[in-house]
Design brief:
Layout: E1 5-8, H1 12-23, E2 28-31, E3 49-52, H2 54-61, H3 66-71, E4 74-76, E5 78-81, E6 89-92, E7 101-105, H4 106-119, E8 123-126, E9 130-135, E10 140-145, E11 148-153, E12 156-159, E13 178-193, E14 206-211, E15 216-221, E16 227-234, H5 235-240, H6 244-254, H7 256-259, H8 265-271, E17 275-283, E18 286-288, E19 293-296, H9 299-302, H10 311-328, H11 333-363, H12 369-384, H13 392-398, H14 405-435, H15 444-451
Parallel strand pairs: 1-2, 1-12, 2-8, 5-14, 12-19
Antiparallel strand pairs: 3-7, 4-7, 5-6, 9-10, 10-11, 13-16, 13-17, 14-15, 15-16, 18-19
Helix pairs in contact: 1-4, 1-10, 2-10, 6-8, 10-11
This protein binds flavin-adenine dinucleotide.
Flavin-adenine dinucleotide (FAD) binds next to helix 1, strand 3, strand 9 and helix 10.
């Protein structure tokens, strides 16, 4: 069955999916609530630059966009950690220092995907179409448009309309539908570091982090030599700063090396919106009604917090999986979509957990000497045991290993290294005993006892 296929949301997932389906000869209509982005510019304070890594690049490669994306991105080979004092420290992402994640504008990547979709015969894009209602009994979608309400029938609805999906609402109260939306107490607000004397004000080869214990700021480079900074603060922290002198004083105290690089600091801070961050989990992702079938894709199925830089990578991976499942199921939508949700759910849950965990790593642990020693030890093991010991960061960012396999792999690796460490400690102890046998040497306690005459 092909039927009438509607994709709701012309974001990253919606556009990629439209292209992949049209290439299979399936006609698709892509509905987007916003105006055509080629006509309107980006929203203030919502520039968001993404870190795209192996999974996203692999997916983009399927529609010939990998090289274009890389040419419009800036590689970041590691983290630059800024303390309150002293010089910032660079920590490479991979043991060999060669792997990089890539900073790219989300709007620009979206535009590239949209253009590929629109060039693909079989894709029709409809902007200014905000989904208001999906009736599962009739398969009818109701859109709000500038010209009034429009009703469109569809047999297959692919909901790629983001974390706060309107399509998902059609099934939210269905018996058996499990849904959770966990807000982080931190929101995010963007600031801009413009170029300085025509060049980057900070090292562009790094993702910059200012870890401050309970909160943090990060900065990613842009092609125009600016940086987009993102503050991840609690609502209370944002609310506590209001007046420009107060804002400037706060940054001078807590982010001293960067405060002077943001000329519009107070203005950006006061006027850029604060976005919220949530982890959304639900199940099932695929629903059948008398009128048709609905499948949730990307953030609509599994929004995650951005601290592993994987939300978009994961959403793009979903599209590849749907395409693969359609091939395996010989074009049978029902079988393909059920296969898709079964394969993706555990993976998306796993990256959601890892993303939450990485927030603590970025805002706090990166500062600790113990953590730095652990990273150095992991990199040492990676160099000594190439392919056998691989860090979690590398598995997530530089491979396409299913996310759900990574925690287990880490547990096995950690057990093995603990055994090796115990073995090495034992060998060292034995060697020490041989070199410094007790009868020929005095322990510290013995020498003190002798000196004290006891
Ligand atoms: C601060 C921040 C930083 C991030 N950094 C990274 C990163 O470094 N790496 C990474 O991989 N991911 C990152 N992400 C996550 C990433 O942006 C998302 O995971 C990704 O955009 C999800 O793609 P999507 O297509 O599923 O949804 P979206 O990109 O949200 O697209 C949804 C589309 O649906 C449209 N839409 C919404 N409602 C309707 C409606 N009712 N009717 C019609 N259309 C509708 C929207 O306008 C939009 O075009 C970050 C997110 C945030 C907030």
């Amino acid at each position: 069955m092909t039927g009438r296929v509607a994709i709701v949301g012309a974001g990253l997932a919606g556009c990629l999916l439209a292209t992949l389906l049209a290439r299979r000869g399936i006609e698709v209509t892509l509905f987007e609530r916003r105006e055509d982005p080629r006509v309107t510019g980006p929203e203030r304070g919502r520039s968001i630059n993404l870190a795209i890594s192996a999974r996203g690049l692999e997916a983009l490669g399927q529609v010939g966009l990998r090289e274009l994306a890389l040419s419009r991105a800036l590689p970041m080979h590691g983290r630059m950690v800024h303390g309150r004092t002293g010089q910032p420290g660079f920590r490479p992402y991979s043991a060999d220092g060669k792997h990089a994640i890539n900073s790219i504008s989300r709007a620009e990547l979206n535009l590239a995907l949209l253009e590929v979709a629109e060039r693909t015969p079989g894709v029709r894009a409809r902007f200014d179409h905000r989904l208001r209602e999906l009736d599962m009994a009739t398969g009818r979608l109701t859109f709000e448009t500038a010209g009034g309400e429009q009703r469109v029938p569809a047999d297959i609805v692919l909901a790629a309309d983001g974390a706060y999906s309107a399509a998902r609402r059609a099934v939210t109260f269905r018996p058996g539908f499990t849904f959770s939306q966990d807000y982080l107490e931190h929101g995010y607000r963007e600031l801009t570091i413009p170029p300085r004397n025509g060049t980057f004000a900070l090292d562009p080869d790094a993702l910059h982090i200012w870890p401050r214990g309970t909160s943090m700021m990060i900065a990613l480079p842009n092609l125009d030599r600016s940086f987009t900074c993102t503050l991840f603060w609690t609502a209370g922290e944002f609310a506590a700063l209001t007046a420009p002198p107060q804002i400037r004083a706060h940054f001078a105290e807590h982010y001293p090396d960067v405060a002077g690089l943001i000329p519009d600091l107070a203005d950006d801070y006061q006027h850029n919106p604060v976005g919220s961050l949530a982890t959304i989990r639900c199940w099932p992702w695929v629903h059948h009604g008398d009128g048709g079938t609905l499948a949730l894709v990307g953030d609509a199925a599994h929004a995650i917090v951005p601290f592993f830089g994987q939300g978009a990578n994961c959403a793009l991976e979903d599209c590849i999986e749907i395409d693969r499942c359609l091939t395996e199921a010989g074009g049978d939508w029902r079988a393909a979509l059920e296969r898709y949700e079964r394969r993706r759910k555990a993976n998306c849950d796993a990256i959601a957990d890892m993303a939450l965990d990485n927030f603590i790593e970025m805002r706090d642990r990166v500062n600790s000497r113990v953590f730095q020693a652990q990273v150095a030890a992991r990199h040492f093991l990676e160099r000594r045991l190439p392919g056998r010991y691989v860090s979690r960061y590398e598995l997530v960012s530089f491979t396409t290993m299913p996310y759900a396999r990574i925690p287990d792999r880490m547990r096995r690796q950690d057990r093995a290294t603990a055994l090796v460490a115990t073995g090495v400690a034992g060998l060292l102890a034995a060697a020490a005993r041989q070199c410094f046998p007790r009868r020929h040497g005095l322990t510290r306690r013995n020498s003190l006892t002798r000196r004290n005459g006891r």
